[in-house]
Specification:
single chain, about 260 residues, alpha/beta, 11 helices, 9 strands, about 50% helix, about 15% strand, globular
Amino acid sequence: MAETEQTVVLRKSDGRGVVRLTLNRPQAFNALSEAMLAALKAALDEVALDEAARIVVLAGAGKAFCAGHDLKEMRAKPSFAYYEDLFARCTDMMLSIQNLPVPVIARVHGMATAAGCQLIAMCDLAVASNDARFAVSGINVGLFCSTPSVALVRNVPQKQAMEMLLTGDFIDAQEALARGLVNRVVAPDRLDEEIEVLVAKILGKPRLAIALGKEQFYRQIGKGIAEAYEIAGTAMALNMMDGSALEGVQAFIDKRAGR
């Protein structure tokens, strides 16, 4: 189905260098369609070139932060080449967050699943409302969340990450805080207020120092992340070609029980 709405809304209206990016497919729980992936990558590239930008706040419109990849789009094109390209494009977008010279804060509410959970893990900071829920739930439709696992295990201890990946179970916001996936958890009506506390502190620091510090931080702890994503993307493309995954995704689309 062709996208007709603006899938990512970019605002730079407060004069302080705070850029607000909002995933804008609320009717689809902000699932990452091909159009949204392209729009988010373009928005991040625009911010990267904007010397007035100081910080990015990434949010989701509607009831959820992000429900991961658009499974209907994925199921409609059962081709290894297509899946490999799709996960490569998603990886490129995810790495753009890490490569930005300014910090990115995830503003998390509602549901964050699969690639949506990955998106939070790729952000530099994350503030969640206490009603947020997190999962890497692809395994529930026969698709191990290989690419999300790359980001997840760089935030969450290995055994806890593997439990999430193997079970597909949700964790609540307090558990996400305990595991290191988010920085702070607050009541829904305090979400923006708490983000503003972080924003104000960061804006008080030199932009160049933050840019240099962020670059070296990920360079020294994230050696091999691009290669890891390449391996994981191929694994997911192969996994999607398996009949059980295609059937599981179709069952999800049809809202019926899987295998």
